[in-house]
Design brief:
Helices cover 35% and strands 15% of the residues of chain A. With 164 residues, chain A is of the alpha+beta class. In chain A, helix 2 runs antiparallel to helix 5. The chains are: A alpha+beta (164), B alpha+beta (751), C alpha+beta (289). The structure holds flavin-adenine dinucleotide and FE2/S2 (inorganic) cluster (2 copies).
């Protein structure tokens, strides 16, 4: 069977790749697109390590067909830092020690950014429920939640400065 | 000798780890992120049966599939020697070799029976379907009861329970017997004012690291091989692969990739020998990786347990006697940490009369693997539950009861030697003083408390410290960094050398680039590899002082080292200063580059103890439990990087809470695992947990230059009972069976 | 030429044509289909993605009621203020599925047509009196939601048929609905039992209509008409609740599986039904959002 040719946008840049009809977006990102920052922990939607943004909504890339990316916008952890500057979430994760092994981190960062873009001032409970699809086995989530809430504060301040 | 009060510049601060930026940007390379040109993709065929004789395997159709480059089965592996492998759960090389690829029998659903390498993952998977295995399905036993029943199917006909005297005449599934008998436990219990006890059970649980196992192997025509893998020890892989395949260790170079969690579960090999054998036959590099379902069905878990216990105290709450018999599921092969379990079960308390009998039971489950404090949480669950019952019976505060009986420095330890500077008493006192312990409970909430400990370990480690020409520092170790140990190594080097943390960079080297280190496990890395780093740094200082002395024309012992610089004290050199950077800059032409590699095997590690406090809300109509507040208190010796130490306590507590409430392997009557995925194997999600407060009790270890004690494992020991004690008080019924799922709490009988 | 294994038509007619191919499967969010395919439980010859068809996507008012495109991701429900106000029970059911990531894909049509007895949105939709618009080679028909599932993994849809829309009636004056489920974890879990309740109270607090539906206690999501009938004409007093519970107990046929025993499910069905009715009633009285 001949492969499908998919044209899409990844982290703001045009991208194209070949895939089988049943390949996942995760496989396409990690394979032909060479973006191995997005991780596979389960391949069945249960761990969130593969979280990416698809047209602005966060999804498990293991549960999206690569072919579905045709004409859509995909954003991954590799697009989080702007140039050399880390995103406030990345910075706060590092400062708090919100990662131990770091394997869940790319997915958590993408999910947390989606939360803060929607609600820059979430309660602890909101953050916990929003991130419930992202398993972390190392940290017990304490420092993850603190880092996310702190990054929200940073973003609100940033935003405040820009408005002022 | 350490001064009594050390002051530190780096130790105790919270800098960002050197590998942090890589890990938040997605650049760090984990097991499946590494690839080689021309690499093949492997896949493993696994037994669908819990127990079956393999009569034959026909791979001819698979080999004929275009794109298939190699197929291996048990016949392609040499019989490995029977050698005990050092580690937390005693294992044997021969068993490990048979676990990675079944020979005559498949011993659990998921046991590898064949593997293929092909030009794409899809072809490899298709090839698996073409391998015909002729199984003779045998009766199976997936539980302790079934495996020790008189008519139980025998897993190994050459297993004559070690530890039993005289040696049994018939083989059985009892894989190890351990016994401790001090004083007269029966008499002491008969005379006790209060006795608590019962029949406790826990299920096998998985370590649950998010990164599945993965590796890439390459075989060269000259017999030299390379392996890239994520594991808790590249040297462990080297020795196990060499042993399993009959190769020379120096011919195998193992490069550690970043590891996405291990918790003990990556202290052995599953894929590496198979990948290398495939690569050898195919003549091309091969990647093998597991799916999540393979991880559940073929790796881990920690043993399930059945424990019968009686613990007695006098009317003042002094423990007088204990009797305990426990069985642990070893899975397909012996090795389930019954030894440490027996030694540690009552290690926290002075119990004059104790009779402890432990058994390991082989059964048709995946071969059990180390999981954080292997063996300890299960028995601690029973012991700490009994202590709670005794406290209730005697009307004594549960922390008070523990304080009356807790061991301290000088008391006899589990090996019969006096304890060193252990901190259980300080932890109990810190728990009692903690605001959490006295905080009023909301209506419907209850509080549980439990203690626990782990022996920790030292073991051999090598580290190198080298100076760059500008005086910046390169530290190299062979200890994989699972949770930030690069930072701890850099901090200890910086502290020793007297230079800023930021000038020190750390590399985890491959097995050809640094001397041997035992794996990252046993809570040993900051202690033992830390010792090596400090020793190497001290050698660098000695060299630097000698160079300064040479330049100043004075004796080396007149040159002092402080604040990262050599200070002259004798004659003309008095008042002169040469910084590390200056010395490094001159080094090439004044004696040569400066570096030191040091191998150590330090003694003096100390056990760690912790006390956890847990508040729960119970929905009495459904049995659902919500943990509403949690505090973990632990003697950590001295925290090199407090945030990372807190993280160990929090992560261990969360795993323990999962073990207590919802995690369990579920097997059907057909001997197949029914929940091999993260949807039905329920590790805690963020919304299941509260913040986990921590208290780091500092009782420095005098046998480590910076006071380090192992911290990683202890935190998983107390939570099982801490949660159970809270739920028992809420339910009005002692919770003796894990997991405390809603159904178990509401309807669970006390079988 | 064989049909492309993946297609994303932008109109219903084309989708119906592609879905009519033997072995073809409709793809909405894929959160069941892709997993079952990878596990080898399904082997579709083709996947027909509905998400580029306007009618299958989005939430539209229909008079005082609502039309929900069958492939609309569940998160869209929570974001529709009018729907949240009218059918909070349906929205809370859809908001329990999986995680945010899963809900950004998972659809009501997929939840219904996957025909898991434990599907969360289905009891809530049944209680609310929702209908499904079925499109097929022979045209369209509108059926009650409870008519779609036929057994675990099986539906009453004929080959080539698909669900294009779900329709919710206007919220009746004095109406309220609720959905509750029990899972061991707070999120990311499959219902051990789920209960949807919708009822109408008159000015005096007397129940004039009630529908109770349960999940995970029978081969399909189950509408227990007798349970609703036991409430009608009462002020939800203890006796009425007891009669409802008796009707539920008589109607359900739970099984033992790895998630729970039949006995526990039976017990929880009663607990959750009582609570769901109380919650729906509170909403009917305007005491709770
Ligand atoms: C991690 C995880 C957690 C989950 N948790 C829950 C949960 O808590 N509660 C719950 O109920 N479910 C849960 N699910 C299951 C799943 O997400 C839901 O059933 C979801 O609603 C399915 O919708 P979908 O759009 O993804 O369906 P798809 O996977 O696209 O389709 C499902 C099935 O229905 C068919 N189908 C889809 N749309 C139509 C249509 N319009 N007409 C005809 N046939 C159609 C497909 O061919 C397929 O057979 C979970 C799944 C995952 C991966
Ligand atoms: S890999 Fe996609 S959710 Fe786990
Ligand atoms: S840091 Fe290891 S899984 Fe989250």
């Amino acid at each position: 069977m001949s492969k499908l040719h998919i044209t899409t946008t990844v982290n703001g840049d045009p991208a194209e790749f070949l895939c089988e009809a049943d390949d996942s977006l995760l496989a396409a990102l990690r394979g032909p697109l060479g973006l191995t920052g997005t991780k596979e922990g389960c391949g069945s939607g249960d761990c969130g390590a593969c979280t990416v943004m698809l047209d602005g909504s966060m999804v498990c890339s293991c549960l999206v067909l690569a072919a579905e990316a045709q004409g859509r916008r995909v954003e991954t952890v590799e697009g989080l830092a702007e140039g050399g500057a880390l995103h406030p979430l990345q910075q706060r994760f590092l400062e708090h020690g919100a990662l131990q092994c770091g394997f869940c981190t790319p997915g958590l960062l993408v999910a947390a950014r989606a939360l803060l873009e929607r609600n820059p001032d979430p309660s602890e409970e909101e953050a916990r429920y929003w991130l419930a699809g992202n398993l972390c086995r190392c940290t017990g989530y304490d420092k993850v939640i603190r880092a996310v809430l702190d990054a929200g504060r940073d973003l609100r301040q940033d935003h405040g400065e820009k408005v002022a | 000798m350490n001064p009594p009060e050390q002051s530190f510049r780096v130790v105790g601060t919270r800098p960002v780890r050197p590998d942090g930026a890589d890990k938040v940007t997605g650049r760090a390379l984990y097991g499946t992120d590494f690839a080689l040109a021309g690499m093949l993709h492997g896949a493993v065929l696994r037994s669908p049966h819990a127990h079956a004789r393999i009569r034959g395997i026909d791979a001819s159709r698979a080999l004929a599939l275009p794109g298939v480059k190699a197929v291996v089965t048990g016949a392609d592996f040499p019989e490995a020697a029977s050698v005990a492998i050092a580690g937390e759960s005693a294992a044997n090389l021969r068993d490990i070799a048979r676990n990675v690829m079944a020979r005559d029998k498949a011993l659990y659903e998921g046991h590898a029976v064949a593997a293929v390498a092909a030009t794409s993952p899809a072809i490899a998977r298709a090839a698996l379907a073409l391998i015909a295995v002729d199984y003779e399905v045998l009766p199976h036993a997936t539980s302790i009861a079934a495996a020790i029943a008189p008519d139980a199917p025998l897993l190994h006909d050459d297993l004559f329970t070690p530890g039993l005297k005289p040696r049994p005449e018939t083989p059985s599934n009892l894989a190890l017997h351990v016994a401790i008998d001090t004083g007269d436990a029966a008499a002491a219990l008969a005379g006790a004012a209060a006795v608590a006890g019962g029949h406790y059970t826990t299920q096998p649980v998985h370590q649950g690291y998010i990164e599945p196992h993965a590796c890439v192997a390459q075989w060269n025509a000259d017999g030299q091989a390379q392996i890239w893998a994520s594991s808790q020890g590249a040297f462990m892989i080297r020795s196990l692969v060499a042993g399993a395949l009959g190769l020379k260790q120096a011919d195998i170079r193992v490069t550690p990739l970043e590891i996405g969690g291990g918790f003990g579960g990556k202290t052995t090999v599953y894929l590496e020998p198979v990948a290398l054998q495939l690569a050898r036959q195919a003549g091309r590099p091969v990647r093998l990786e597991m799916s999540r379902s393979e991880v559940f069905r073929a790796t881990g878990p920690a043993p399930g347990a059945v424990i019968d216990i009686r613990l007695g105290a006098d009317k003042d709450g002094m423990l007088v006697g204990a009797e305990m018999t426990f069985h642990y599921t070893a899975g397909a092969f012996p090795g389930a940490a019954a030894h440490p379990a027996a030694l540690l079960a009552l290690a926290g308390y002075k119990v004059p009369n104790r009779k402890i009998t432990g058994w390991e039971v082989v059964c048709n489950l995946p071969s059990s693997a180390a999981y954080r404090a292997p063996g300890a949480p299960q028995v601690a669950f029973a012991v700490e539950s009994c202590l709670d019952e005794l406290a209730l019976q005697l009307g004594i505060d549960p922390i008070e009861l523990r304080l009356k009986n807790a061991v301290g420095p000088g008391d006899t330890g589990p090996m019969g030697l006096p304890h060193g500077q252990i901190g259980l008493i300080e932890c109990l006192e810190a728990a009692r003083a903690h605001p959490h312990y006295s905080a009023p409970l909301a209506p419907g909430e209850t509080r549980g408390v439990a203690a626990g400990g782990w022996a920790n370990y030292g073991g051999p480690s090598t580290a190198a410290v080298a100076l760059a020409e500008d005086g910046s520092v390169l530290v190299t170790t062979g200890s994989p960094d699972i949770g930030g140990s690069r930072a701890a190594m850099a901090m200890m080097a910086a502290e020793t050398l007297g230079v800023p943390y930021e000038t020190v960079r750390v590399t985890i080297a491959d097995t050809a680039s640094i001397g041997f280190s035992f794996l990252t496990g046993g809570s040993r890395t900051t202690f033992a590899t830390g010792h090596a780093v400090i020793a190497a740094a001290n050698q660098v200082i000695a060299t630097a002082r000698a160079r300064a002395a040479q330049i100043w024309g004075v004796a080396a012992d007149t040159v002092a080292w402080r604040d990262g610089a050599a200070h002259g004290t004798a004659g003309d050199s008095a008042g002169k200063v040469l910084t590390l950077a200056e010395i490094a800059g001159k080094a090439a032409n004044a004696g040569g580059p400066i570096s030191a590699e040091v191998g150590v095997n330090p003694a003096g590690w100390l056990p760690g103890f912790g006390v956890h406090i847990c508040d729960c809300a119970l929905d009495a109509e459904t049995g659902q439990v919500k943990v509403t507040r949690y505090t973990a208190i632990q003697d950590v010796g001295r925290a090199i990087h407090p945030a990372y130490v807190e993280g160990q306590l929090q992560g261990g507590a969360a795993q323990g809470i999962g073990w207590a409430l919802n995690e369990a392997y579920v097997y059907g009557a057909d001997g197949r695992m029914e929940n091999p995925g993260f949807l039905d194997y329920r590790v805690p999600v963020a919304s299941d947990l509260p913040m986990i407060d921590t208290v780091l009790v500092d009782k420095p270890n005098p046998d480590h230059p910076y006071g380090v004690k192992g911290v990683g494992e202890t935190p998983i020991v107390p939570p099982l009972a801490a949660v159970a004690n809270a739920v028992s008080r809420a339910a009005g019924r002692r919770q003796r069976h894990l997991p405390m799922s809603p159904e178990q709490v509401l309807l669970g009988g006390d079988a | 030429m064989p049909p492309s294994p993946y297609s994303a038509p932008d109109n219903l007619g084309e989708a119906l044509g592609l879905a009519a191919a033997p072995g073809a499967r409709v793809l909405a969010g894929g959160t069941d289909l892709l997993i079952q395919t990878r596990a080898g439980r399904l082997a579709p010859t083709a996947m027909v993605d509905l998400k580029r068809i306007d009618r299958a996507m989005g939430i539209r008012p229909a008079g005082q009621g609502f039309v929900i495109g069958a492939a609309t991701p569940c998160t869209a429900l929570r974001d529709d203020a009018a729907l949240v106000a009218a059918w909070p029970g349906v929205v809370e059911a859809a908001s329990l599925i999986g995680s945010v990531q899963v809900r950004n894909r998972a659809s009501l049509g997929g939840n219904l047509c996957n025909a898991s007895p434990a599907a969360d949105s289905v009891p809530a939709l049944i209680a609310a009196g929702a209908t499904a618009v079925v499109a097929g080679p022979g045209g369209e028909r509108e059926v009650p939601v409870e008519a779609i599932p036929a057994g675990p993994g099986r539906t009453t849809l004929a080959p080539g048929e698909l669900v294009i829309e779900l329709r919710l009636p206007p919220r009746p004056p004095g109406g309220g609905d609720a959905y509750l489920r029990l899972t061991p974890r707070t999120e990311m879990d499959i219902a051990v039992v789920g209960v949807g309740a919708a009822l109408v109270l008159d000015g005096s607090g007397r129940c004039t209509a009630a529908r109770i539906a349960l999940g995970a206690v029978a081969p399909t999501a189950l509408l227990v008409e007798a349970a609703g009938a036991a409430l009608v004409g009462t002020k939800l007093e203890e006796g009425a609740i007891a009669a409802m519970l008796a009707a539920i107990d008589a109607a359900i046929s739970p099984i033992d599986d790895q998630r729970a025993s039949a006995a526990y499910r039976r017990r929880i069905a009663g607990v959750l039904a009582t609570r769901a009715v109380a919650r729906a009633a509170a909403r009917a009285r305007g005491e709770q959002a």
